[in-house]
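Give me the fold.
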Amino acid sequence: MVYEPLQINFFQMNRYFHLNDFFPSLQGFTLGLLKSFRAEVIVGDGFWGGLAGMMLRNITGIPFVYDYSDSYIESAGMGPLNIFFLLERLIPRSAGLTITVNYGLAEKARSFGARNVEIVTHGFEPDLFLTRHKPEKPEKHAKTALYISQLTKQPGMEILAEAVRMVPDNVSFVLVGPILDTKYFRSLIADADLKKKIILTGRVPHEEIPRHISNSDICLFLDSTETSLALFEYAAMGKPIIAFRGPVERRFVKDEEIAICDWNPKSLADAIIYLLNNKERAESMGNRIRKKVIASYSWESKTKQFIKHIETFLNSG
């Protein structure tokens, strides 16, 4: 049995049991400590899960596996004096195995002193994203480009804001996700022309994401990493995707599964206009990437990879 301080879930073979919401309370930590004595390995994600796992390892001597991806999300943008910023550097160093979602985070974990690092990319939830949804088109716009992410200060957002000006007025841009830097973001789209073309939904429940993807004609991936949850969800629904040049090319460019643009507004705008005006090409790309992610990137397949890395780690000890 694997004890994880922060999540309730049963993985394959009922071997991996995950306990939820007990740490950081003293009562919960005590319960976690008792349960950990029956575990082969302790798995912790995020800061509290990682801190609990690190402490339980020190008390029990049971191997500790750290899921680093959640901690990175929590620490993004934090200053060097923030406690979570410090924990992000301390926890990977204490883990016998660190599992993260992409090459960039793997290198970052190693720079913090992580000794054993493996990569398990994000995936998608088949029950949500393999169901066909009937599109509900906005009334005023014939075509829609979708971007799903946390909305904060980053080069991709500034490039998108400029690219929107270069795209015909009959294209709307739907941005789904929480606005983390409100002042910056509001100033970025303060222009009246941008306000008419950009639709902000704010944070939405995960079960509503398929509807937004279904309503889109193309989907945008503006991150500098090679994996993102939204990327696989776009792909599972067969939508054509535009991404910036970078690590993502390693996974999805060989067979022309996504469109790649340079890190400048004109290149992004040209890619958007091209795919919107070439429906057959866009649909072909969407179908190719859909087949690829269904075959290799469902949560079930990702869970199997995660478990395999843990078992290899335990057997190597």
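The CA atoms of residues 244 and 261 lie 5 Å apart.
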